[in-house]
Design brief:
This protein is of the alpha+beta class and about 140 residues long. Helix content is about 15%, strand content about 30%. It has 2 domains: about 60 residues, no CATH class; about 55 residues, no CATH class.
Length: about 140
């Protein structure tokens, strides 16, 4: 029995996935360091009995757009910009490593370099600390 409805639904399902990705890209268009998600699909012929023109849709690739945005001068001494395809490593509250491109940084009251939301920046040997009395050292309340 030909299950043509399932074949047709692969296209509809992937169209919704692409629409959700586009909505996410639009919602985050002004988020510092955000990289757009791009979806590419391809048709794959259905093998077996039935019409030879039948095809279903599969994800060919999901990728991020690393086209650099414009740099904005903030005047804050700890703000940085990542050029190219690099990321800033973070240490999440549950102890895992995460990555961001948002370079709006501050120093906590105990000297940890952190993101604007208070997540510590990871160096090669653990969280990065900034010695007191360092030029540009401004604490942010945690």
């Amino acid at each position: 029995m030909d299950r043509v409805i399932y074949t047709a639904m692969t296209g509809a399902s992937h169209a919704l996935t692409q629409q959700a990705g586009m909505a996410n890209n639009m919602a985050n268009a002004t988020t510092t360091g955000f990289r757009a998600e791009m979806h590419a699909f391809r048709a794959v012929p259905v093998e077996g009995e039935g019409l030879p023109t039948r095809a279903f849709v599969v994800d060919a690739s999901v990728m991020s757009d690393f086209t650099p945005g414009t740099l904005q001068e903030t005047g804050r001494p700890l703000d940085i910009a990542v050029q190219g395809q690099g990321f800033i490593a973070l240490l999440t509250p549950d102890g895992r490593e995460a990555y961001t491109r948002n370079g709006n940084l501050a120093v906590s009251a105990n000297g940890l370099l952190q993101t604007s939301s208070g997540i510590p920046i990871q160096g090669e040997n653990g969280p990065i600390t900034v010695p007191p009395d360092t030029q540009g050292h401004r604490t942010r309340k945690s």
